[in-house]
From TrEMBL:
A GO term, aspect molecular function: acyltransferase activity, transferring groups other than amino-acyl groups
InterPro entries found in the cross-reference section: Acyl_CoA_acyltransferase (IPR016181), GNAT_dom (IPR000182), Trichothecene_AcTrans (IPR052523)
Domain N-acetyltransferase: 56-210
Transmembrane annotation, as ranges: none
Record-linked SUPFAM superfamilies: Acyl-CoA N-acyltransferases (Nat) (SSF55729)
Name by which UniProt lists this protein: N-acetyltransferase domain-containing protein
Gene3D superfamilies from the UniProt entry: 3.40.630.30
Origin species: Apiotrichum porosum
Pfam families listed in its UniProt record: Acetyltransf_10
Length: 210
């Protein structure tokens, strides 16, 4: 397993990571609810924007089983940032996703921002994720499923954070994933339900313990 931190924000350098994220999340019930008109290009545009923002402002880890392609991706906000707030959270690289979105989807995204603020404050305290390594995205491409890609990415950030004496935090949306993260030392700090565009959803805010 080859773990790399991307440092080049150019489209040619980030496209493979964006595709891996898109493939990993395309059947996710949250992604579907945030794409009410089923635009086939919207999720890839969103993932491309997220990867580029991570390279510019945060951290983008990629995993490859044999070095030939990107098989998994993890986007991490290091300490010092509020959820989703950074110098390059908006810019030319986010324009396509903005253009492809709809008022209905935009309203749902704004609702999610409020949800995250409430959930993470209740889970982690008044500074929410600002004093943690926050894993905003973690996905394994379907072709690499079952090879421990996500686990190796998690171990990389947990090892780094532990050395610095900082917890790792994340939010997950299914009971199966909650159990998965528990295997890597995460515990649930708060749980909420939320109606997302008519889709009942569940949210677990989790953290490693120092």
């Amino acid at each position: 397993m080859i773990i790399t931190i991307l440092t080049d924000p150019s489209p040619s350098a980030t496209v493979d990571a964006a595709v891996a994220l898109e493939q990993g999340f395309k059947d996710d019930h949250i992604s579907i609810a945030l794409n009410p008109h089923n635009n086939p290009d919207l999720l890839l545009a969103r993932m491309g924007a997220a990867v580029t923002t991570a390279v510019l402002d945060f951290q983008c880890y990629t995993a490859s089983l044999d070095g030939s392609k990107v098989d998994g991706v993890m986007l991490v906000q290091p300490p010092g940032f509020e959820h989703g707030v950074s110098p390059n959270s908006k810019g030319p690289h986010t324009q396509l996703a903005k253009d492809l979105s709809t008022p209905e989807a935009n309203k749902a995204i704004e609702g999610l921002k409020n949800l995250f603020n409430e959930l993470e404050t209740k889970a982690f305290g008044p500074t929410a994720v600002r004093d943690t390594y926050y894993v905003s995205h973690l996905a394994t491409a379907p072709w690499a499923a079952g090879h421990g890609v996500g686990g190796q990415l998690l171990k990389a950030i947990i090892e780094r954070a532990t050395k610095e004496g900082v917890p790792v935090t994340l939010v997950t949306m299914t009971p199966r994933h909650e159990e998965y993260y528990k295997r890597y030392g995460f515990t649930t700090k708060h749980y909420m339900t939320y109606d997302l565009n008519g889709t009942p959803t569940e949210w677990w805010a989790m953290s490693t313990d120092l």
